[in-house]
Design brief:
Elements lengths: L2 E4 L12 H10 L2 H20 L4 E5 L2 E3 L1 H7 L3 E4 L4 E3 L14 H9 L1 H10 L2 E3 L12 H9 L12 E3 L1
Parallel strand pairs: 1-2, 2-4, 3-5
Antiparallel strand pairs: 1-7, 5-6
Helix pairs in contact: 4-5
Length: about 160
């Protein structure tokens, strides 16, 4: 396997955690449960960063919450012109530092833009993203055309490129 391409399904990349099934219960958890959840989400990011193959996010449509972090920690991000990225943690009562956002986002978009995105939960369009955030849309078509999902991998899971 030469690289890992992460895509979404249904015209969107990933909308993050469901407010009723994931976010709501988080606000009622005690510290040991919160720590367990935080470690689990951190393990995903660590696995992506330690992956020997390049991790590429092909972003289309909505890319929010945990989905935005998956894209952020990918080695390369290619976004369609209509893609929108948002770090919505603050809008649901969570800290913007979830999954390492406060450490990585300033490195990618700069301190001022990172603060705006994390403090307000506003979205950023692919057109307004800096070159470090995403490249043009044409690689998305290339990634989709060349990627093949393994038979056991449902849509939206990691795809393999030859």
């Amino acid at each position: 396997m030469k690289s890992i391409v992460i895509t979404g399904a249904g015209g969107n990349f990933c909308s993050g955690g469901d407010v009723h099934e994931i976010i709501g219960p988080l606000t009622r958890m005690q510290m040991p449960q919160l720590l367990e959840f935080t470690r689990m989400t951190g393990d995903l990011i660590k696995a992506m960063r330690h992956c020997p193959q390049p991790v590429i996010s092909s972003i289309d449509g909505v890319c929010a919450g945990a989905g935005a972090l998956i894209a952020l920690f990918s080695d390369l991000r290619y976004a369609a012109p209509g893609a929108r990225v948002a770090f919505l943690f603050v809008r649901v009562g969570l800290a913007g530092c979830d999954m390492g956002a406060c450490a990585m986002l300033p490195r990618v978009v700069g301190q001022g833009r990172a603060a705006e995105l994390l403090y307000t939960g506003r979205s950023m369009s692919a057109r307004k993203a800096s070159p470090g955030v995403s490249s043009t849309a044409s690689p998305i078509r290339c990634c989709r055309r060349r990627s093949r999902s393994p038979p056991s991998s449902p849509p939206g899971r990691a795809s393999r490129m030859p």
